[in-house]
Design a protein that fits this description.
This protein is an alpha+beta fold. 27% of the residues lie in helices and 19% in strands.
């Protein structure tokens, strides 16, 4: 018997979790376990419904404050779902999953704050963009206690937008041994490395 590969398992969990989000009406009467009944009962399994979601981050005050209505006016439905409602995009589908530029900066899709340099990005094979570090002060960490375990959620320090999670000690050959697992939809990319440019401008002005 051949076991499915890792990408297939991830996609399966994502599909089931999305199904649970759309069909959350509980059944009042027990029914025979037909194929349809089994599928409809999937949402009652907490593991599947929460595998690709995150608990609400700690209520903190961020420099950029907007109401949900204001965010919805400037974000797409998918951006709002992920950035403001702690959602997760499907694995291996994000715009920046296989995006490996040599220079440039990844910025927050909600507020344009710089988050990661292109040099921070590495190939992890996890299905989402991976970074071993962030621009200093750009990312804030929160404790996420969903799934009956403790994970570390990462958000934009400027607006509080949900980026993803950070994992440590997985054995990747990177300077920090951390993997910032970030949703592509939470970011934009600027090919001009503004962070480096500003630093250079500061040095030139002192000279």
């Amino acid at each position: 018997m051949r076991f499915p590969n890792f990408p297939t398992i991830i996609r399966t969990f994502y599909i089931l979790s999305n199904y649970s989000a759309r069909h959350s009406t509980p059944y009042k009467v027990l029914q025979p376990f037909t194929r349809g009944t089994i599928l409809k009962s999937m949402p009652t399994i907490p593991f599947l419904s929460s595998f690709f979601s995150t608990s609400s981050p700690s209520k903190m005050s961020y420099p950029l404050q907007k109401s949900d209505d204001e965010w919805q006016a400037v974000l797409s439905k998918e951006q709002f779902r992920v950035l403001r409602q702690q959602g997760t995009e499907a694995p291996f589908t994000g715009k920046y999953d296989k995006h490996m530029p040599s220079t440039g900066v990844y910025t927050c899709a909600a507020c344009d704050a710089p988050l990661y340099k292109a040099s921070h990005k590495f190939k992890s094979g996890c299905g989402w963009p991976a970074y071993f570090d962030n621009i200093p002060g750009a990312v804030t960490r929160h404790t996420d206690s969903t799934l009956g375990m403790t994970r570390t959620e990462i958000v934009c320090s400027n607006c509080g937008g949900h980026l993803g999670h950070v994992f440590k000690g997985e054995g990747y050959a990177t300077p920090t041994d951390e993997r910032h697992c970030v949703n592509s939809v939470s970011m934009k990319f600027d090919p001009e490395d503004k962070v480096v440019d500003k630093a250079m401008e500061g040095k030139e002005s002192k000279a």
